[in-house]
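Inputs:
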Amino acid sequence: ETGVTQSPTHLIKTRGQQVTLRCSSQSGHNTVSWYQQALGQGPQFIFQYYREEENGRGNFPPRFSGLQFPNYSSELNVNALELDDSALYLCASSLASGLGTGELFFGEGSRLTVL
Amino acid sequence: SQQGEEDPQALSIQEGENATMNCSYKTSINNLQWYRQNSGRGLVHLILIRSNEREKHSGRLRVTLDTSKKSSSLLITASRAADTASYFCATALNTDKLIFGTGTRLQVFP
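Outputs:
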């Protein structure tokens, strides 16, 4: 039990649609990171938010965007869905560099299928 | 892109045997971490080793780090069926932006 919850757990969308995935971080954690994990692969870093500002981004196009709110909740939005966006999306919370152990606390993920 | 690769990609052993997984990475790091993932679920942190450490233990886990070779190994002693999972190494340039490897799928047979 990591104290990080994600919703929905599963969803199906069609190509071209938009999706919003939600995450509730562990209380007191001011940093949230999002990862995409394709089947059989390791998690790929999408971006990180620290105190509601984007604080680093991986190799993902601008149609992947995020928001972080003061109440420890956050969102991942993906526009113009493509078939390759089908994956498990993982949210992880942590304390900012220098303040925490460096450990990430993961939610159980949202499995997105794009048809 | 992945920072590193785990080796082997898959490992099958009997209960009671030891399991060793290796991780290679490409750039300088602040720390290296190992995570476990049960099938299709979230990742769970196992152990963190800092760049100035060479070995660390936690219960049945032993992690080594060789920064000159940019490699790490995870040893699970006296494996149990419940250890069946995928194991990932992850490296951090700074503390919180982790880059994961490709993973080792461990199967422990009763």
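Remarks. The first strand of chain B starts at residue 4 and ends at 7. Chain B has a mean pLDDT of 91.
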